[in-house]
Amino acid sequence: MKPSRSKLSSTVLCVLLQLCSLQLLVVAMPTCRLLEDVVLNTHHLLRDLGGAFPVQCLKYNINISFPDSAFPASTANHPQCRQALWVVYETLRETQLLFEDFELPVGEGGVSWDRKKLSSFQNLQDRLLEEGSCLSTNKTPDVLSPYFSNVTAVVQQQGSAACGWMALRRDVLWVLKTALREHHSCFTRRGRH
Ligand SMILES: *[C@@H]1O[C@H](CO)[C@@H](O)[C@H](O)[C@H]1NC(C)=O
Ligand SMILES: *[C@@H]1O[C@H](CO)[C@@H](O)[C@H](O)[C@H]1NC(C)=O
């Protein structure tokens, strides 16, 4: 039995509609990727915008100690990769919030970072947060929030603010470096999606 012409065209239409809605779905879905070279540049800008961690800030290590265990032990599978990328995403997101909520202390005993590099760093940070936006829906408990509450407490107080920012920078650098070194297979490389 040959299908009638009208039946055939309605089948074609149906397939086309399904393809279209699939495409819409893909377009509407927030992206979940972090580009490796953008993360690398972000790391380099943060590394180069200021000097080494000051000795006089060491005493705040009790207050500010990044939970290393937030990273998965290995990245052999998809959930572990997602966790590793989430640590990067969430660290950058909380850092962006701190920059929005508090001014960097200037003047003597303040933070003397290269403003141009800082602003380039923040631009890349914004881009990573946009491109990785779907990572925000992580199902594991938020292991980073006690850390960021502590950073906020130290950054909030006048006497310790500069050290709070220095410690934050040290830890964000550690997060980016660790992710790039130990979980590099989780990142997206340009030209090979
Ligand atoms: C937060 O600060 C308290 C001391 O005020 C410290 O005992 C705790 O380990 C800190 N936690 C983190 C994640 O830095
Ligand atoms: C650091 O933590 C101690 C408790 O371990 C607390 O008394 C102190 O206020 C904290 N310092 C800052 C600047 O938050």
TrEMBL record:
Entry's localization field: Secreted
Keywords: Antiviral defense, Cytokine, Disulfide bond, Secreted, Signal
GO CC term, one of those recorded: extracellular space
Gene Ontology BP terms: defense response to virus; immune response
GO molecular function: cytokine activity; cytokine receptor binding
Principal location listed in the UniProt entry: secreted
Keyword Nuclease recorded: no
Pfam entry (one): Interferon
Annotated signal sequence range: 1-28
Family the entry assigns: Belongs to the alpha/beta interferon family.
Protein name: Interferon alpha-4-like
